[in-house]
Amino acid sequence: MPETNYNMDMAFFVDMQRCIGCHACEMACAECETNGQESMIHVNYVDRAVSVQTTVQVCMHCENPACANVCPADAIHQDDFGVVHSANTPRCIGCSNCVLACPFGVPKKMEEAELMMKCNMCYDRTSAGKKPMCATVCPSQALYYGTHEEIARMRPNSTPVNSFKFGNQEVKTKVYVMMPKGAKQLIVD
Amino acid sequence: MYRLFQTLNRRAFLKAFTLTVLVVVLVWLGSRKLQNFDPALIAYLTGTVFAVFGTSYRYSVWIQRPPTRLYWQRSMRFLFSRHFFPYLWHSIKLFFRNILFQRFIAFRSRRRWFGHFLLATGCLLAFAVTIPLTFGWINFELRPGDDQTYHAMLFGFQAGTFRLGSPLAFIIFHCLVWCSILVTVGAVIMMNRRFTNGGLIATQTFEDDLLPLVLLIAISVTGVGISYDYTFLEGKTYQFMAVTHAITVILFLLWLPFGKFFHIYQRFAQLGANLYKVEGARRGMAICPHTKKAFASQTHINDLKQVTKELGFDFDKPDGSSHLDLSPEGKRSALAAAHFRVRKESGKFFG
Amino acid sequence: MAKLPTSVDRLIAAFGPHKAYPPQSGFYGAHEPDELVKTHCCYCGMQCGIQLKVKENKVVGFEPWMDFPYNEGRLCPKGVERYLQNNHPDRLMAPIQRVEGEGFEHISWEQAMGKTVSEIRRIQQTYGKDAFAMLSGVSLTNEKSYMMGKFARVALKTANLDYNGRLCMVSAGAGNKKAFGLDRSSNSWADLAHAEVIIVAGANISETFPTLTHYIWRARDQGAKLIVVDPRVIPLARTADLHLDVKPGGDSALFGAMLKILVDNDWLDHEFIADHTVGFQETIEAVKDYDLDWAEVHTGVAKEKIWEAASLWGKAKTSFLLHARGIEHHSKGVDNVLSCINLVLATGRIGKPYCGYGTITGQGNGQGGREHGHKCDQLPGNRDITNPAHRQYIADVWRINESEMPGKGLTAYEQIDAIHRGEIKGLISICFNPLVSLPNNGYVREAFEKLEFYVCIDSFLSETARYADIVMAGSLHEEEEGTVTTAEGRVVKINAAVTPPGNARRDGDIIMELAARLGEADKFSFASSEAIFNELRLASKGGTADYFGITYEKVESQMGIFWPCPSLEHPGTPRLWEDRKFSTPDGKAHFNPVRFKPPTEVTDEDFPVVLTTGRVVSQYLSGTSTRRIGKLVDQYPEPLLEIHPKLASRYGIKTRDLVRVKTRRGEAEFPAQVVETIREDTVFIPYHWGGKHAANQLTIGNLDPISKIPEFKVCACQLIPTGEVASAALTETAYQSDL
User: Fold this and answer.
1) Angstrom distance (rounded) from CA A141 to CA A145
2) Which of C122, C258, C354, C674 has minimal Cβ neighbours within 10 Å of its Cβ?
3) From C30, C31, C239, residue closest to B349, measured CB to CB
4) CB-CB: which of B270, B335, B348 is closest to A93?
């Protein structure tokens, strides 16, 4: 229905070690029109008592999204571009299954609105050929949105990885994490 | 056709079929062997019966999905537990608050709530009037000798009387007009959002988001049109109004099981989800090993471990614990910590 | 004037700070704005390009400006939220006047101007011209900065004009002038992205100049080594190749010791030193005893790390050294700067591709604002007010007699002393909130209470404006056209997005009317900002900061021009000193011998802990604007006392415990944040808050003898646990600066 101009050559790359914890992405996320002043990106200290390390988490847009699978209301939809959308508002019953099942800890439950909301990669912008808000403003470019060629040129010693291991589960995602050259998978735990 | 049979869900079909037969029987009985049935409404009746079949089929398929089934079973078990009365009371309160008044929508946006409330109230009231009429469960009679008193009949029994031309008669006979006004105003508010809110414009689709509103407005406008026609136009446009109204209503009924309106049935699951949360909290909370804070009920975590397994995910770790034991913040930190380790071991954080 | 006109609570209720949030689904018109205005962020010296969305003369949102070359759309949280300062409920919409016991009342511009001018006349006739002082600020555009300087000298005729740049980068400016004869970062940031070794000293880039991080990370992507000098593990230091956790006040010892290592290992550019510099021998003579053992004692940094840093720097082919307030806010700030420059000159890595040096200016127009004459000793074009030729040139531009031009006045903090001494009786201020930003602010507050008349031009009622007799409702950054000069020396264009709301007026118009009423209308009859800029171009012509060849048209079409730009054909100068001709009288770069001196206040038995101050990413300077933006306040709602667990355990302090911090000047209570990311002997408090939450109640007002910058970054304190846990109520109201 809306004119879509989604560019499949563009990809999202995350490198948490570049993150300086400034929260610019979080502020900018709230300006994305699809989520009405709610911020969908997560920035948190890993353990402030010992380090200033922060982590930044956008929706990874899994190829087989656990959130959509565990949704009892069929409220989470993955489109043809592989974007996993925020909960369909009429359907979502606010049960939090997706919040707790997502291996990346992404979906957010808006308690009073009885609604799950999550990052949809700034669909209003990406579907119009623009970059997502967070990756546009990120001053450290811990979040980068561009082509594979661009990232390869800019970060010659890193490899984009989109395979993760959580326990016994392998998860493949649309979003990449930048890893040392040659890495194939990020084993989380 | 072959594919349809291949993918036919036998259980759902059986349930839906049974329910449909039951409705037909109830129509037969409720209308006193069709004595009170208005033959002019036959098209509406057919549509409604189809809607019953379609909706119940889809509902049944829906609750067979592992997460839904689990929620369904759990909430039934929690409701019919030793806490039955408090939970029943809790659910009734929630029914009024969340289903009839849709208060949760107000936290998404006030205007949106207002639009939705008008629209939903109009629809529900209209259902409450038209379904019994279509089924022949309600009819109005004039008795010989008194052409001024209307007798309202429910299942063939007298349920009340009122004078022709009285304010009550005006309210009752124009009930659908009131509904139409509510629906129209609500739908226009909702439609306006869809044309001005950038986020909605980007994500909406015609069939899921605009068509339902168009359909509701069409039903309402033609419905009011019938009334307007016989009040002011002496039936000059009756044919057109009646036919378009019937077509839009039947389209609505046929589409009910498949499209956006199915969410009306799904909403009830919100009551179950709520009960699940209350009972879960009572049974004990799960503490995140990373943040050391409670983040969800342990029941929920345990159930999710089972459901994810049924769905083909295995988040178990070699040490016997599970990735799902972590809170969302814990999971994000675990990922960041793992990434930090890999980067550090490589000797370079950058490049 | 004396104390506050009424209770602080009543002032807060009427004028804020209140936290502003956008409505749930954004402001009306954000989806389809009338126009997108290309301008720059109002915070910090990076001056990131940004587009403001305007609907019906209101700023309703922003859209990243992808084409602006410095930041290509990147922004920090302050930049993202900056649009919320417009359209703010606390905004002053008309001039207000102090009413004893009541607070403030609205008055007409006629009344405000009339009263102000009569008070200026009264005070100057009674006590002399210099008894009426002016304080300005470098968040103002070049045009306004220029006009403030002209206004003070031509209309007010006072020598006592200074600005809040005095708290910013004056140590760097003084050091740069001594060494290079010119005060500007030597390179554009483009060179930074390709340097092989980068030293960042006392610059919390990731929080105070977040968008500059990208350039450092880009350099690291290509293998650059990053050395961070800071008492805290700032986000930039977390992954740095080397973090030198220097003890506050130990900077010149560190750089002196590094210089000695360069000399001992012959990691020197002899040719450059011989041909293009003077003073090398005296300089290395000064550090000849600074061996590693000595250095370890005086810097608090492990000697291996010092050696490693010197060897990385010494062996590099290209390098960039950056510093900021961390080494500049000291009673020996200029020395610290010079000791950094000595490292750069010794290795000859300046004036070449990918080789650079610079201070990172903190304020929005910290660079341009410090060049065009609202500094007590300066005239436009970075000219010297004590130099007869400079005076004559500017007097001609201003069409006044050179003899009428006042001489050098008092610096900002010296003005406070002069108020205490009774020499200054009246004050006009703009864009400066000394009650939050000056050290030892109990003393500063007493000074404001002694003034006979104080008029303030501001958009919000800042903590200082609460003490004013009259507050004139001025303009915000997005309400007046002009130019600013970024920290890399790039002159960029600020475009007006909206007009001032209600009865508020443009700062420029206010100053022009005041000047006219003071009898100087003919010298302040600018028809536009561009007209002011054109006079500034002429005034700066031939000065070290030469803007003559820069025009609005050039700035806009070329996305900024680097000064010096002496002629219309000149393309601007992104990289200085490529010709090796320095701006010093002898054309050489000057080494300056630096001997280590301890800070004014060293720890002792009574005050055993080092206190240092700084900033957080979500706030800007004294917070007049950023403490009014909801999400920025919520991100870091109150100043926390960062303390190492070992030090904390000595006092039994845990995270969130309320700790009283006491110095010789005052005491205040802060919730503790126990973290391993700070030196064990040092505590840190950010300074953006006022009233009882002000870190500057504790800091010391001792000044650098040359730059007159106060020693914000080091003093001695004692810690007294109150035994209480900090309350949520305290957190929630800290942004209001209650007393």
Assistant:
1) 9
2) C122
3) C239
4) B270
pLDDT for res B242: 86
pLDDT at B1: 46
List chain A residues with CB under 8 Å of C81: 27
DSSP state of A35: G
On whether residue C591 sits in a domain, the answer given is: no
CA dihedral (B163, B167, B168, B174) positive or negative: positive
pLDDT, one tens digit per residue, over C395-442 is 999 999 999 999 999 999 999 999 999 999 999 999 999 999 999 999
Q: What is the DSSP letter of A88?
A: P
Given a contact cutoff of 8 angstroms between Cβ atoms, the answer to whether C677 and A51 are in contact is: yes
| Rounded Cα gap, residues B278 and B284, in angstroms | 10
Task: List the domain range (segments joined by +) for residue B327.
Answer: 284-346
Q: Is B109 within 8 Å of C221 when comparing Cβ atoms?
A: no
Nearest residue to C382 via CA among C372, C374, C392: C372
Instruction: Give the pLDDT confidence of B266-324 residue by residue, as tens digits.
Output: 888 999 999 999 999 999 999 999 999 999 999 999 999 999 999 999 999 999 999 99
Identify whether residues C58 and C112 lie together within a single domain.
no
In chain B, count of helices (H) and strands (E)?
16, 5
Where on the phi/psi map is residue B260: left (φ > 0), alpha (ψ -120 to 50), or beta?
Answer: alpha
Amino acid sitting at position B278: V
| Exposure on the CB side of residue C419, measured as CA atoms within 13 A | 28
**pLDDT tens track for A120-147:** 999 999 999 999 999 999 999 999 999 9
From the CA of A179, how many Å to the nearest CA of chain B?
7
Helix (H) or strand (E) holding C401, with range, is none
Q: For chain C, which ranges sit under pLDDT 70?
A: 1-2
| Residues 6+ away with beta carbon under 8 Å from A177 | A13, A14, A15, A16, A160, A161, A162, A164, A186, B339
Q: Taking CA atoms, what residue in A is nearest to C83?
A: A31
From the candidate CATH numbers 3.30.56.10, 3.30.70.1350, 2.30.42.10, 3.30.70.20, the one assigned to the domain spanning A10-187:
3.30.70.20
Rounded CA gap, C484 and C487, in Å?
Answer: 10
Closest chain C residue to the Cα of A124, Cα to Cα: C31
pLDDT tens digits for range B329-345: 999 999 999 999 999 99
Other C-beta atoms within 10 Å of C265: how many? 13
Say whether both C331 and C413 belong to one domain.
no
| Prediction ipTM score | 0.96
Omega of the bond leading into C564 within 30 degrees of 0 (cis): yes
Average pLDDT over chain B, rounded to whole? 90
Do residue C31 and residue B198 have CB atoms under 8 angstroms apart? Answer: yes
Q: Do C720 and C707 lie in a common domain?
A: yes
The H helix count followed by the E strand count for chain C is 26, 28
Task: Please tell me which of the candidates B260, B307, B315 has its beta carbon nearest to residue A167.
Answer: B315
User: Would you say the C-alpha torsion B182, B186, B188, B191 has a positive or negative sign?
Assistant: negative
Q: How confident is the model at residue B145 (pLDDT cuts 50, 70, 90)?
A: confident
**pLDDT given for residue B160 in this prediction:** 84
Mean pLDDT of B158-179: 85
Is the Cβ pair B351, C222 closer than 8 Å?
yes
Question: Which DSSP state fits C581?
Answer: -
CB atoms within 10 A of CB C104: 24
Whether B299 contacts B279, CB under 8 Å: yes
What number of other Cβ atoms are within 10 A of residue B205's Cβ?
Answer: 11
* Tokens 């600018």 sit on residue: C526
CA distance B93 to B340: 49
- C311 and C419 in a single domain? The answer is no
- Among C77, C235, C675, select the one facing A27 at the smallest CB separation: C77
- For residue C660, give the 3-state DSSP assignment: strand
Contact at CB, A179 and B339, closer than 8 angstroms = yes
| Domain C-terminal end among C485, C520, C555 | C520
